[in-house]
Design goal:
Layout lengths: L1 H33 L10 E7 L6 H9 L6 E8 L5 H9 L5 E6 L4 H9 L6 E6 L3 E2 L3 H6 L7 E10 L5 H22 L12 E4 H7 L9 H11 L3 E12 L5 H21 L9 H20 L1 H23 L6 H32 L10 H25 L34 H7 L3 H12 L3
Parallel strand pairs: 1-2, 1-4, 2-3, 6-8
Antiparallel strand pairs: 4-7, 5-8, 6-7
């Protein structure tokens, strides 16, 4: 009975969250369409890149920033004690460019490196950029335009998986669109953005200073800074058109390490900001409680869903086998009715998730056909996240300090994954993005290929 109640409760809560977030995301999209920006607003922007063993990607990252053609702009690269030739790559490619400065320091961690770089900037706005991320050619102007509103303290962009090279990275691309980006878009409608990601986001320098800069007491420094800025009264916006392409882990081992860092960092932030629950408007009354419920409690109880399914199936098999041996044994129909209930509830939840995912893909102007992977992506991810959460909870309860767990870069990000422009009324059905562009004369495809070639070392 307990398993059945927990199973039904988990399904209902999960479906309700999907509906709530999807509706908020649609509201946010309408707000985005109605927004009017002052395109003449172009304050000085400083891009700070913390780099540790990034020789394979650092040059392309800097070139992608420069390809935005935004002025005034300067870039500060902080080499955080790299053991490879990160600094040499920067100096050989940009040693004569006055817009780019290279700082070196002993390895002190990403937060310390970002703080070191920010101490050197004088611009009004700061972009703290992950060293593996490639910006689209219009990302910086799209981030900057929101800061014309003086109450905006930070802007989160739209993170895309740029190395869709195997099923695992394709599954992560589904997660980025249907979970992370949809959540950010939704919570922006109520000024409760969960995180300004390091892959693509901008900050007002004054807001960072008032919040005390990056801290080293969590493994989710971007999330912690986002919450501290929100708690002191700044508004945090998102811009789904400001694209950043990140390198996702392409193996289960690397993915586990990354998700452990994310899950453990989220737990640290939730505990650090526990007194904010119920305060600061929607941020403390909706967003923080939902993280506690769905990122912690729900994840702990989620295995009960699989246990209930297995338990029901085992009851059906046992009832069937006993009925074959004992003709007077009648519980088989009852066991089948339980199986029907479990199947109906699980199918209901999957349909709700699928519809929410289709909406997310439409909002992001991505091809939803990749959602044929959704069932397996959700099923396998759930097993992975069980292990990640258990390790995170064990580490948190034991008080053991853990390292950042940096991923090895492979430099496989491809800007050609950029989603197509929206169709005009009367155009035919969606086809492959590059094929449609070829039909239009390859103008946009040629621009992207030229932009990509410019990023090659």
């Amino acid at each position: 009975m307990f398993l059945s109640i927990a199973f039904i409760t988990a399904i209902i809560l999960g479906a309700a969250r999907v509906v709530f977030v999807t509706l908020l995301a649609i509201v946010s999209k309408f707000r985005e369409r109605r927004a009017v920006f002052d395109e003449s607003y172009r304050p000085p922007v400083s891009v700070v890149i913390a780099a540790f063993n990034e020789e394979k990607v650092i040059v392309r990252t800097i070139r992608a920033v420069l390809a935005n053609l935004y002025e005034p702009l300067d870039i500060i690269v902080v080499d955080d004690g790299s053991k490879d030739d990160t600094s040499g790559e920067v100096m050989r490619a940009f040693g004569n460019d006055p817009r780019i400065r290279l700082l070196r320091q002993e390895n002190a961690g990403k937060a310390a490196a970002l703080n070191r770089g920010m101490a050197e900037v004088s611009g009004e706005l700061i972009i703290a950029l992950d060293a593996d991320t490639l910006f689209a050619k219009d990302t910086i102007p799209k981030l900057v335009r929101h800061f014309a509103d003086p109450v905006v303290g930070a802007v989160a962009g739209n993170v895309k998986v740029g190395n869709r090279i195997n099923p695992l990275t394709y599954w992560q691309s589904i997660e980025y669109v249907t979970s992370q980006n949809l959540d950010r878009r939704a919570y922006a409608a109520i000024n409760a953005v969960t995180v300004v990601p390091g892959a693509v986001g901008a900050w007002r320098r004054l807001a960072i200073a008032q919040a005390g800069g990056y801290t080293t007491d969590t493994m989710a420094e971007d999330m912690d800074l986002t919450w501290r800025i929100r708690r002191i009264g700044w508004r945090i916006e998102t811009d789904s058109a400001a694209l950043g392409y990140t390198e996702a882990p392409d193996s289960f081992v690397a993915l586990f390490r990354q998700r452990f860092r994310w899950a453990f960092g989220t737990l640290q932030c939730l505990w650090k900001h526990r007194r904010a629950v119920g305060r600061y408007g929607w941020f403390g009354r909706v967003m923080l409680p939902s993280l506690w419920l769905f990122q912690v409690v729900f994840q702990v109880l989620s295995p009960l869903v699989d246990v209930q399914i297995l338990w029901t199936l085992s009851n059906v098999v046992r009832a069937y086998l006993r009925g074959r041996l004992d003709q007077d044994w009648q519980p088989f129909p009852q066991a089948m009715s339980s199986l029907y209930l479990v199947g109906f509830m699980y199918g209901f939840f999957f349909v709700v998730e699928l519809l929410g995912s289709i909406v997310a893909y439409r909002l992001d102007r991505e091809d939803p056909r990749v959602l044929v992977w959704l069932f397996w992506q959700r099923f396998l991810y759930r097993q992975l996240m069980y292990a990640v959460l258990l390790k995170s909870l064990k580490t948190a309860l034991s008080g053991i300090r853990t390292g950042w767990g940096k991923l090895d870069r492979k430099g496989t990000v491809n800007l050609l994954h950029r989603p197509p422009s929206p169709r005009k009324r009367g155009e035919g059905p969606h086809v492959r993005p590059l094929a449609r562009e070829a039909g239009r004369g390859c103008r946009e495809a040629a621009v992207r290929r030229r932009h990509l070639s410019e990023l090659q070392p």
